[in-house]
Amino acid sequence: MDYTVFGILDSEPTPSGFPAFDLRRNGITDAEFYGQGSSFDFVISASADLSDGLQLSELSIFTFNAREDDTGRYHPPILTLASDGTGFLQNSDNNGGVNPGNNMVVVVDTGEEYQVTLAADPSLTIAEAAVVPLTAPIFLLGAGLLGLFSLRRGLRLS
Fold first, then answer.
1. Threshold 0.90, pTM exceeds
2. What residues does 41 pair with on adjacent strands?
3. Does 137 sit behind a cis peptide bond, omega within 30 degrees of 0 on the bond before it?
């Protein structure tokens, strides 16, 4: 799994002491993802028509929590999406480890570094029909997150 989260932090001082961040995580294995306290939960509505891909409106539950214990990172996200197109992105409660950027032990509560409300058209396709493997949820996560984070249309941050 790969993901990138970046942004400018509005409130000063933040627990990390950084004015901005660019967190890139590449090649995370299932064992590492779940072993560091992360979780991923999603449910596709029973009435979903997957022949045209997966739309936001066809999700019952979507929560991606990239929590990390003892890694020294402040910024791993929690992404929650709802079928009505609303969502929330905030930092997870990442604790432990020394951050090499400031040599501080990481202690950060959920949402303490950043919180962003998301809104998108509920008909937004988050996974193409050709890549909806119902037996491989981690692949769907990667495809869905790639689509969400690379969206250039229909997504408004507020």
1. no
2. 63
3. no
Q: Report how far residue 123's alpha carbon sits from residue 106's, in angstroms, rounded to the nearest whole number.
A: 39
Closest CA relative to residue 80, chosen from 52, 110, 45, 42? 42
Query: Is-contact 150 10, C-beta < 8 A?
Result: no
Which tens digits make up the pLDDT trace of 34-45? Answer: 998 899 999 999
Neighbour-count burial of 146, counting CB atoms closer than 10 A to its CB (0-12 exposed, 13-18 middle, 19+ buried): middle
Position 144 scores a pLDDT of 58
Amino acid letter, residue 154: G
Determine if residue 101 is left, alpha or beta; phi over 0 gives left, psi from -120 to 50 gives alpha, anything else beta: alpha
Instruction: Give the C-alpha separation, 103 to 106, whole Å.
Output: 9
